[in-house]
Every structure is written in structure tokens, then in C-alpha cells.
Amino acid sequence: MNWDAIGAVGEMVGAIAVLATLGYLVLQIRQNTAQSRASSHHAISESLNQINILFGQSTEVSALWVQGLENRSQLSEEQRWQFDSILRAYFHVCETMYFQAGVGTGDRGIVVAEERGMALILAAPGGHEWWIENPFGFSSEFREYIEKLVGSS
Questions:
Q1: How far apart (Å, rounded) are the C-alpha atoms in residues 134 and 106?
Q2: Domain-wise residue ranges, the chain
Q3: Which of 35, 54, 64, 84 is most buried, by CB atoms within 10 Å?
Q4: Rounded to an integer, what distance in angstroms lies between the CA atom of residue 44 and that of residue 29?
């Protein structure tokens, strides 16, 4: 065997090693993406559950929620701040879902599953009034998404 043949074999072995490494990296990236999506899903679920627990643990908060959705302007200043804070927390979770789905680290299915809830809240007089009065704190892309969602419901 001459040096050219040995060099060719070496190049072939090197090429196979590069392909094997690339294959391994593809598998690692897929596993990492799946893990990232699972973590995102878990974090969103936990955030939504915290809001649900808030209602489940307090009849006062539940009553405030119902009153605020029906007629936000009849709430006291303190109640209104509390109602607005709950809405802001909920819609920030929804914005996070929307953003993560858009960049591929979240599940679009979760966003779709929550769309009806967002639309119902914003269709209520108090929810609609809150959305109109609170343009701050949400990205323009998310606000456009919500405007389309509310317009189509």
C-alpha cells in the first residue's frame, strides 16, 4: 500500500467520523428541543394553575373576578387594582405562550386551547374595558394577535 492509498483511507475514515458526529449532534439537538418544549409546557401549566388556585382558594377573589368582568367601573379603587393585576398576570402568561410557540420552544396547541378563554374574558364588559385601558406591558405583536382573536370571535 502506498502513501496515497493510506491518505485516501485516512480521508475516508475522517469523513465517516464527521458524518457520525453530525448525526450525533442532530440527535442531541432534537432531544434538547423536546426537553425545552416540555419545560416550557410545564412552566406555562404551573403559571396557569397558580391563577386557578387563586380563584379556588378565595371566594372573595372569585366574586371580585365575576364583578370585575361584569362591570369593572363599579369596583373600588383597591378592587380594581386587584382585578387588573389578575388580568395582567393571566395575559402575561398568554403572551409567554404565544411568544414561545412563535420561536419554536413552546406548543402552539396550548395557545389554541387558551384562545377561547382569552376571547371570553375580553368579550365581557370589564375585560374589554381593561384591555382598552391597558396598552402597556404587552408586545405589539401579541396585541395584534389578541385584536385579531377578539375580532374573529
A1: 26
A2: 39-152
A3: 64
A4: 22
Torsion of CA 116, 76, 74, 125, to 10 degrees: -20
Q: For every residue of the chain, which 3-state class applies, written as one string?
A: CCHHHHHHHHHHHHHHHHHHHHHHHHHHHHHHHHHHHHHHHHHHHHHHHHHHHHHHHCHHHHHHHHHHHHHHHHCCHHHHHHHHHHHHHHHHHHHHHHHHHHHCCCCHHHHHHHHHHHHHHHHCHHHHHHHHHCCCCCCHHHHHHHHHHHHHC
pLDDT given at position 105: 80
Residue 102 and residue 113: Cα distance in Å, rounded? 15
Tell me which of 126 and 22 has the higher pLDDT: 126
> Looking at the chain, how many residues does it have?
153
Cell 364583578 -> residue: 67
